[in-house]
Amino acid sequence: MGRYVARRLLQMIPVFIGTTLIIFLMVHVLPGDPIRAMWGDKAADPAQVASLRHEFGLDQPLWKQYIDYMVDLFKGDFGKTFGGRPVSEEMGMAFPVTLRLAAVALTIEIIIGIGLGAWAGLKAGRAADTGVLIFTLIVISMPVFVLGYLARFIFADELGWLPPNVQDSMNLQQLLLPGFVLAMLSMAYVARLTRTTFAENLRADYMRTALAKGLPRRRIVGVHLLRNSLIPVVTFLGTDVGALVGGAVVTEGIFNVQGVGNLLFKALGQREGTTIVGVVTIFVLVILLINLLVDLLYAVLDPRIRYA
Amino acid sequence: MRGAQSAKWVALAAVVALAATACGGNDSDSGSNDMNKGTADPNGILTAQLSEPQNPLQPANAKESQGSRVLKQIFAGLVDYEPGTGKLVYVNAESVTPNKDSSVWTVKLKPGWKFHNGETVTAKSYVDSWNWSANVENNQTNSSWFQDIKGYSDVHPDKGKPKADKMSGLKVVNDNEFKIELNSSVSYFAYKLGYDVWAPLPTGFFKDPKGFGEKPVGNGPYKFISWDHKKMIKVRKFDGYQGPNKAKNGGIDFKNYTTADAAYSDLRSNNLDWIEQVPTTALTNYKTDLGKRAIDEEYSAVQSIVPAFYTKQFKDIDPKVIQGLSMAIDRDTITKTVLHGSRTPADSYVARGVLGYKAGALKEQVTYDPAKAKSLIKEGGGVPGNKISIQYNADQDHKPWVDAVCNSIRKATGVDCVGDSKPDFQADLNARDKHQVKSMYRGGWVLDYPVNSNFMRDLYGSKAAGNTSGYANKQFDELAAKADKAATLDETVKLYQQAEQVLAKDMPAIPLWFYKVNSGQSNKVLGKIPYGQDGDPIFTDVQVKKK
């Protein structure tokens, strides 16, 4: 087990360097000069542009920029934004917000998704199953921005239960609405996935054995069936955490959440290489670690899986 | 009770049923919500929309509107402009007077003004501030605003390190008087002084400019309280303020919004008192949504399409062809339909509300006349290739009007026209700067200072840095140079009006329309929010209702 984890951690190093290099290069390939763009439609003063480019190290050859960046990174310095603020400070504000939002979404996803899926799976072929199928199909086919505006229109503008926008991004209650919207799509997938594995495993040999042993139904479903059915769901949830952390740009935009999605979106518009690479670096780390965690969770869920 | 609700397409039957039972009433503008009823609370706090300023809050470091909006409240400059006419008003200055040929200006300050920390505002506060901001090493985005001053090239050389840290043209006479010597005559120099970059700075600034940028101390109607990054910037009324524009409210909370949609929905639910601009999706119905609380104000900015004169197509073009293209655009219809009344057709190169704007400076050139358009293009030898494209950036809402303009040109003249979209503003700028535009491009200009020279010399002068189309006209350059050296401002303005007629013949750009602010205010605001010429509210004059 320990060796397995060590090997996985070592494998992360080339992946990490590769992804940051690719992102770094891609940012520089994008057309446009971020410094010149500060002047917008107005004329830029070449001397000032040159001086600013020097300040941010953009006058150096690309390979040197990358090495400088990586050296600073290993010292824990993520560089600074064009406004002169440390990127680590910007990320320090954005990541906790996004993590909270992701946690809210993930909780909703797990509770409602698995619940609905299990219910439908147990009643496979009956009205409840069809009902859940139709509901999930509707949710899956709806783009997130439609869902977002619709949810705001109903719950905030008309019913007035929740504030239409997030005023304080760290307030869990205010994150409920965006979290719900964010959770909807994945929740539908979780429900479908759980339903299928449930329906399948219901006919498995060990179920018949358990039933024959005379175990109470609560225990059969709650322990044997649930545990065995969760493996594909956990895999999905694992990848979904990555998506939740990184892919909430639209939802964050609609509800005015000051999270990582917004940070990244803005940085891209400004070609702020330091922020983009910094955020992506964290993404890569998060996704790598979560994948490792998911793999380790398999062993917990299914004793037949062992890592040497 | 409930005002006219826009029937959103998302409102499915079930939602409508819910809506009917829920009694909102927030959108209503009658009864106790009447914007003109109630008494003003001199200490009421206003909440306004803002995005995160890009740079620290230093006066010469706000090229974008967000930082500038805050700086304008915290600092008071020497002069300001009267909204509507563009006339000069003295703020911190008692007088700003030129010598005979407008090359040396004497500034006298109103004595006894204080910074928010109690320090006295003196001539030195101004001179030191300008010297620092102009210095190339201090990396202020607006440093080139000081280029008229003698000695600018010493602190801001084209290449290499500055030779001095002071501009020789600035001389302190005494605490309340200083002289500005310019490189050459600029008759409207006093007008430039209304911009944020010319603000004075207290001595504390120079010890730690960066720290100051996080916690600025100014001399304006509001004092800075706090900047909670990406959440809120708070400013409060400065009781010791002696200027003419004392705040009529207790202060402003600038709240951070990431999208126009989010801000608009907060405005509708009265969680926010003022927004910058309604989202494009709401342009069609914001007036019904908001009723009297809707704001529809013109400001001094112009949008045009500019031929790239470095291309084969427009290199030796007969101006008649460009005139013809201009006349093929049905500005009235497009502004009313596609743009939902968010612009007004342009009739001049200079935007309305600017000193020297002459209504109808362009007449037939901007009047829709398909027959004449066709014949003019024919007379001028036609458009090479019989096809033009208009470059624009797709990350802002330009596609609809570009398509409409193209459609209009195509229908009227038979010249094929397509939009050439660049993914974002940076890519668009990049192509313009590198002279890679294939045919024509979208150009926009918001005033820097309300004199007509700003809309002409800085865009169409053959050596102007803002001239990216490669346009050059000797006659225009000569007139502009003469106008800058004129003895009086009136004469300058008149000479520029003559220069505008040169442009009208030569058509270096096709002016399309002037911009408007489409915004709104909450029902906590008393009366209409007044606007300045730059499209931003005059926050000091906004009154908040007593609760």
UniProtKB/TrEMBL annotation, chain A:
CDD domains for the chain: TM_PBP2
Entry-linked PROSITE patterns: ABC_TM1
Principal subcellular localization: membrane
Cellular compartments annotated: Cell membrane
Sequence ranges assigned to domain ABC transmembrane type-1 in this UniProt record: 95-298
Pfam families: BPD_transp_1, BPD_transp_1_N
Residue ranges of the TM segments: 12-30, 101-120, 132-155, 175-193, 229-255, 275-301
The entry's keywords: Cell membrane, Membrane, Transmembrane, Transmembrane helix, Transport
Recorded topology in the membrane: Multi-pass membrane protein
Lineage top rank: taxon: Bacteria
Record-linked SUPFAM superfamilies: MetI-like
The family this protein is said to belong to: Belongs to the binding-protein-dependent transport system permease family.
PANTHER family: DIPEPTIDE TRANSPORT SYSTEM PERMEASE PROTEIN DPPB-RELATED, DIPEPTIDE-TRANSPORT INTEGRAL MEMBRANE PROTEIN ABC TRANSPORTER DPPB-RELATED
The protein, known as: ABC transporter permease
Automatic annotation (TrEMBL), chain B:
UniProt KW keywords: Signal
Coiled coil regions in record: none
Biased composition annotated in UniProt, kind: Polar residues: 27-36
Keyword set includes Signal: yes
Keyword Nucleotide-binding: no
Secretion signal, residue range per the UniProt entry: 1-19
Domain spans labelled Solute-binding protein family: 91-466
Region: Disordered, residue numbers: 26-49
Domain of life: Bacteria
Descriptive protein name: ABC transporter substrate-binding protein
Species: Streptomyces rugosispiralis
